Every structure is written in structure tokens, then in C-alpha cells.
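Newbie here. two chains, one complex. Structure please?
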Amino acid sequence: TQLLEQSPQFLSIQEGENLTVYCNSSSVFSSLQWYRQEPGEGPVLLVTVVTGGEVKKLKRLTFQFGDARKDSSLHITAAQPGDTGLYLCAGEEGGGSNYKLTFGKGTLLTVNP
Amino acid sequence: GAGVSQSPSNKVTEKGKDVELRCDPISGHTALYWYRQSLGQGLEFLIYFQGNSAPDKSGLPSDRFSAERTGGSVSTLTIQRTQQEDSAVYLCASSWGPFNEQFFGPGTRLTVL
């Protein structure tokens, strides 16, 4: 079973600060996805990274996939209260089980005004 | 609203009772997934349906859990003889196909007393 470790588990910061959350594994994933989940709702896909070393930017969010496709990071610049939520990473196992996502436990981010 | 819907949103039951959770996927989506999200845990894959193919039941935790998908649309997850450890949020997702973005419903919060 492939596992994804996310850190930190909890993060509370002030509006305007920068932050980075991490997603690590000892296994290789064919791709990795980042989701944000708000209370009472399902996760919403933010980005999918596929190529080792790939960097994707989504406004103030920067996502990076490690060269070996075992880890990823999410960096938020100038965090806003609207960024508050649970950030989940999920890896696709690849091969014939591409549909099966392995999720990390998430990073609960609170951005205080 | 054309999103994934789930019912009920909350379910409280007594240990030993059976429960049925319903998922209405996005119209036209051929793939449907069930996940379980326990407190402090990531999403755990339960079962996957794709068109008329046999479902992948490899994530079901015990034989008390079963799911069906009628007419390639609505799905029902059934938990028999519920236990306290079954308490969790059960999330359903659908996608156009196995390699496409999964859209999640808001989940059903199950509490077993």
C-alpha cells in the first residue's frame, strides 16, 4: 500500500504571511493532485502535477512535483482568510489502477485576519 | 445544480442497525467512487464503478459493506450491522471516466451510537 505523509498537520498563520505544506512518500506516483476541502463539503481539485520537477502556479498558489515523483509541495504567497481549509494531496497509483487515489491526511490551514 | 448530491447529509443510527447512503452523480459521468473520511484521517477508497464493468470492491473494509449502482447512475452504499468504528463522513465522487477529474459530493456524516 502506498502512503502519503502530509506536514504540517495543522497550520495557523496571519493574513499576508507565506506558507508551504508538504506531501511525501517513499513510493513513486504517476501523478499527484492537490485538493482543498471546506467544512461540510467535498474536496475540490486545485491542480494535477504529472512530470517530475514540474511547477504549476495558480494565482498565489505554487505547486511542485519532486524530480523522483515521490513528493510534492504547495506554497501559498500572501495568504488570505479565504485560503482557510483542509489541503489534501492525493497520488495516482498508475498502471491499471489510475482511478485509485491514495490520499494524505491533510493539512488544516487557518488564516487569521 | 449539476453537482454530485448525497443523501442524507447526516445520519445517526444505533449500533447493529443497517444504513443506506445514496449518491446521485453528475449526469453523464460513467465513473463513480465511494470514499470514507474518518476524523484525523485522509480519504480512504472504498469502491469504484465504471460503466457496465464489474466494480472494484478492493477498498471495502468488511463484508458488512456493499454498494450497487443502478442503471449506471444512482449508487447506494449499504452498511449492515453498523459498528461505532463505522462513524465517518462517506463521500461520493463521479467523473467522465477513470482518468478524469473526480467531482465530490458534500458527503454523508454517519454517527453510530
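Moderator note: Chain B touches chain A through 26 residues (CB under 8 Å). The beta strands of chain B are 5-7, 10-13, 19-24, 31-37, 43-50, 65-69, 75-79, 88-95, 103-104, 108-112. Thread marked as resolved.
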